Fold these 3 entries.
Entry 1:
Amino acid sequence: MKSVCFYFQVHQPYRVKKYRVFDIGNDPEYFNDRGDGKLNNRQILQKVAQKSYIPATKLLIELLRRHPEMKVSFSFSGVALEQMQQFTPEVIDLFKELIDTGRVEVLGETYYHSLAFFYSPSEFERQVSKHRDTVRKLFGVWPRVFRNTELSYRNDLGEWADKNGYAGILAEGWDPILGWRSPNYVYKPKGSQNAKLLLKNYRLSDDVAFRFSSRDWSEWPLTAEKFAQWVGVAEGDVVNLFMDYETFGEHQWEDTGIFNFLEQLPQELAKNSGIDFKTPSEVIASYDAKDELDMPHTVTWADTDRDLTAWTGNPMQRSALDAIYGLEEKILLANDLKLLEDWRRLQTSDHFYYMCTKWFSDGDVHAYFSPYESPYDAHIAYMNALQDLKLRLEKTSRA
Amino acid sequence: MKTKVLMFGWEFPPHHSGGLGVACQGLTRAMAARGIDIIFVMPKKLDVGAPWARFVFADTGVEARAVNSSLKPYVSGNGYARALHDAMIYGASLLAEVRRYALLGGQIAKEEQFDVIYAHDWLSFGAGVEAKRVSGKPLIVHVHATEFDRCGGPMGVNRDVYEIEKEGMEMADRVIAVSQYTKDMIVRNYGISESKIKVVHNGIDDSTEPHGAADRLRLKNLKASGYSIVLFLGRITLQKGPDYFLRAAKSVLMREPKVVFLLSGSGDMERQMMDMAASLGISDRVLFTGFLSGADRHEVYSAADLFIMPSVSEPFGITALEAMSAGTPVLVSKQSGVAETVRHALKADFWDVDEMTNKILGVIQHKGLRQSLSENGRREVSAITWEDAAGKVENVLQETLLAGVQ
């Protein structure tokens, strides 16, 4: 028996508007861009909902009805859920309907889709528990498997998940770490007792997420039949297909045929005897760990480096991260909910990603994902907003 | 067989007052390295240490009056028209000089052996056109700036200059523009067919910049006392937007008093800018250094925390590359050619003083931003070379020669 394990990531940050130096001290709203550009969070969410979340979720509901053996998993950032509740409540209803089938596992992550694990363990814990509460209230489920922002992982995160009762954790199946080992098995994180590690099969995942519509690719066009055969011949216990949910309809537009592909995939997979669908928890329960994996350095699912350099690689990013996490103690003491909320929204990893200047080697991906004119503009808007936050904090602390 | 180019220029380092001379130096050296023979013609005998090209001076060996040394190729249409109105001497004699250069160009073309003619900017276009008429060889004109740039818009464009530019581009077999920005302007304002124009961005040559450790201007003292330095370097003329620089300075100083703004260069708006700084009440924070070259120029580039090029219309803007190569963050106007070639630079519309203020303060206040711009900018600019530009020019030469054969 071999299993296919789908995990889709749903995330939308609160993008900082073009916050200028003149706004400091005058405008405490950082995320309320109302223009027609790429910083209007409401407009972006509505667009992504129309192109991706709504049609993809309707299709998945239909597919689960048609294929009783099919299962998938999701991870939702808290800031995405919050924005959907505010701007597109119909999407939340669709996700509820999907999860109510009982065949969708919801994973745990940080509410603010942050890098807090690497900067403040206590803040990390608070964000994870806020996320857990939200998922429980909204969908009535309790996350048992964890995935950290950008699929970032290293040994101590595995240990943390283990200590905190998670059955497992997700990571990138990156060859330099795996060596001769295959991502298609379950592993044991170094230092953990019970928790297991599931690794993304990035080749097959990226065939769908990145290459699906690429006409330069020798395998274009990718049919569900062909893809199912590749999964069929893959060796190992489980093929983990991890990708952004926006792959369906937003990264790959409808006219690329991505929805048809998704629609046909279950029946094509079923043609290979001995393939089933499992959620991450089921994979963990079904297969023994093949080996222990030692990952002392952080691995992510980003670009060709698979590390954190897309978020922390240049002096702008590092100083912005130091500045935001440097405020923790005072913010917590201030006991001001709006201030706390803004501080946390400013921790979302996307803000630092927009400041990435690794344009020389793999810039296209970053350029595509940034709503700012340049990484420098992103930094200036962020630092201005942060300066205002500091002023507000000083005022509150004095009062 | 080596391709032989008869090239007409107007200025050449160390005798130059702007980017044209620097560009001619960088480009001819790189062309020579590719095996192209260059006869470089200038209107007037000058000492130039450029062994890679043979220099011919139009005023030697031919009957000619000496060129009035006060003449500058960058006289703006405005200043130019004003001069015409005021005295009918300054402008008239420049035009007369350009016309005489054209005639001498024809004579030189009769005496020299070459395959193709190449002329830089309107001052040399006449000579190029005349050489083509005399020899029947193809002509390439290289547009480093148009009259519309020099005037900062269509107002005050000098009719005679415009006609010389237009004739040069029409008579040319190929036109090289220093940027897409300039190409668009040539198509729009001169009616030249797009297919005839090829964009070749300028390069930058590390070795042309002297790297002295001089501190003649005592900028280190300023920095040691906690001041940030924001630099303008260029001709102080309408085209270069020094007035926008001062308005941004005023706006920055209202929020952050420990900043000194350097205006480096000379030009017909210098006096006006001094008055403006005084009336804005910021004279104590604005320093006028006059025209700088060599080690002094390098000193201001490296001392500055930010270099600003607020040009109203800038065909290219080589100074931005010079600043980047000194590791200095730059803020360039979007109305410039260089803005389309570099990514690791801040950009703003020249008229958007608020946005400039936002960015200037960003750079002054955030070390991470300064470091990232500096490191990335220096690396980016190291890949922008005259070798690349010369390679593209060589392709244009070959196309032109091939078209002549068919």
Note: Residues 309-398 of chain A form one domain.
Entry 2:
Amino acid sequence: MKDQFPILQRQVNGKPLVYLDNAATTQKPQSVIDAMNNYYCSYNANVHRAVHTLAGEATEAYEECRLLLKLRYNAERVIITSGTTESINLVAHAWARSNLVDGDVIVLTEMEHHSDIVPWQLLAQSIAVELRFVPIKDSGLDLEAYKVALDGAKLVCVTHASNVLGTRNPVEEIIKLAKAEGAKVLLDSAQAVPHEIIDFGELGADFMAFSAHKMCGPTGIGALLVKPETFTEMEVFMGGGDMIEEVTLEGSTFQLDEHRFEAGTPRIAEGIGWAAAIKWLDGIDLGAHHKRILKLAKTTSDFLLKKGMKIHSPLNDGDGAIISFNHPTIHPEDFARLLDAQGIAVRTGHHCAQPLMNILGVSGTIRASFYIYNDEDDVRAFITAVNRVLEVLE
Amino acid sequence: MSWNPALQEIIDEFVDIDDQFEKLEVLIEFADQVNHLPLEEWSDDNLVKGCQSIAHLQVEIREGTIFLMAAADAKLVQGLQGILTVAVQGLSPQNALELTPDFAVEMGLLNTLTPSRSNGFRNMFDTIQTKIKEMI
């Protein structure tokens, strides 16, 4: 599979690149690069308005992205955004501001990415909503505490899979419990969509946010899936081109479909690239690949454990193929730079989840995250590189 | 740009090393060049903001030249602090302000000079010059 990814052919610091920072962003297959390049070379035009040929071709190709997303995730409403962060902020502005009042409760978790914490803290500055955080227990969520936190909740925001731990949360049960309480549910699925095909219609969540670049697509584009009845409760947020029906000096009317929430010229090349990524992913057995890379991650984790590292990731069946770890004495930044010197790309730091870092009792971790193009050779190279780091720094 | 002879010697030493891992091993040894800032003197005032690691820098002007004390929890950052010490210590404030951070790229230690959360060297370099400007 690696031969379909041009970047995986390059060397870094004189060594073959071993890319293990997939939870940050994934690499792009040639077909995605070609699709975006072809748009700019052959039919670059703005979409939705003009009657000329290029505009028609561009509109067709761009809107194919939305159609493919609807089919892949069984969703009736797909709002195209700049990514997970904008999707969550859109829920905060377009739904929460007009549907929540002082005293309402939003349930979050200690496992959330900053993108699913900060928008709610900002909301709490203008509406006196109460933010309740479900604690972590054994690398997962404390579901008993969640049940207690649900009392009177109007909205539950939960990460589908943790970007730090890889933990895949039991969102099916979380949604069922939230619905019994009458609460809306927002899933941050940024780390889940790369690894599983999700039936949004069947799940019953109200919102699902994710990004293209975590699933072989381009950066700068993502989606918010919305349940139809919840979609009708959303108020217009950003105004401008593309979202209007008619504008007069006295006032404006707005489109009724998803375009209502997509002001301005959209990310056309990125939408076309994402469509190509979805088609590429449709051609592979995601479930089988996920099992394979989870096994690679477990092999790697077992090695790190034997070398005395603290492993934070549970790596249970269904979890993301993510290993967050710390050495007892070596600083994560030293570790990562010495790995980079050997061609290995991993991530260090707080991973935009500082509250979780505080709970783990560390300022940051080293994170190796696998994706479908990683193989046994990568694990071998990683192990060799780690041994060399330990020889120098231990 | 021409550097002081001691810094030029270090640049030449790093340029001669092809292997990036070996470069970093040598960088770690430069931690010995640091005038260690004792833990009890670590403060928000000398904390270098924006680094992944904890890094402290205290810049003083002693008898008209720069004197640097530093500490960090990451060994490579300590090494960078050692190189910064060689680069600025003993210079007049004016000469230290004329220094550009390009030498780290010339050594092959950095792939970017763009300030960011991952560029501890740039944050430390900028901090030193900011502190000097505040003192003169």
Note: The mean pLDDT of chain A is 96.
Entry 3:
Amino acid sequence: MIFGIKDYWSKDKWTKESLIFDLFVLDQLINDMTNTQILLSAETLNIQSCIDWVMSPESGGIDVFIGTVRNATKGKAVLKLDFEAYEPMAVTEMEKIVQQAFDKWPVQRVLIHHRTGVLQVGEVPVIIAVSAAHRDAAFDACRYIIDTLKQTVPIWKKEAFEDGDIWVAAHP
Amino acid sequence: MKINVLAFGVAKEIFGSSLVSLELTNDATIYNLKYLLEQQYPRLKQLASYMVAVNNEYALPGDTIHERDEIAIIPPVSGG
């Protein structure tokens, strides 16, 4: 953000040029507020609505990563997964990752939707969608976002096996 | 000072609760907090690693804790 709304309205000199510049900046601000969507939800994620949201006439391509619940870990049958999040911090950390993606690549819209609660095999815990004018940026940013999310965002999953439950990655 | 510590994932099971209260000295650091917690809950030391968050940000061992800070134990994350 370049300046706040308060500064914007307290300007005392209005010229045509400054007004055009200010409208440009304001447009950028509004754009900044709508080029990112982050959601933590206990409800089923909607893949199509995520794709629709990142699509724009300026985009040349969209990259989507869809995580799915796998039926086994190291050969052992997984019955279901239970996701828990430290919600305010998870959202803050996801916002940081998205900002890093915008800083690193010329991407246009970025979306992260992540589930909480119990998911059955085949259900979708995470969707990442990125649009860009050219595919390299979309591929690279999408990969970066899911890889970083797995390292920094405070969300945990517990795998349910037939002989008990295990928090993933908790123990060496 | 008395502080509350939030626990998530496996830490919640180790504490037996999603919230524990601790008494710390006024200039206590993250390092001091971890030491105290590991004395009371030795199973914490068996984790692959764990971080402490203060007011929704990852904290460093030397960071000082203040009264009314929101403290959380962050065991290894596994989202996605």
Note: The CA atoms of residues 124 and 167 of chain A lie 19 Å apart.
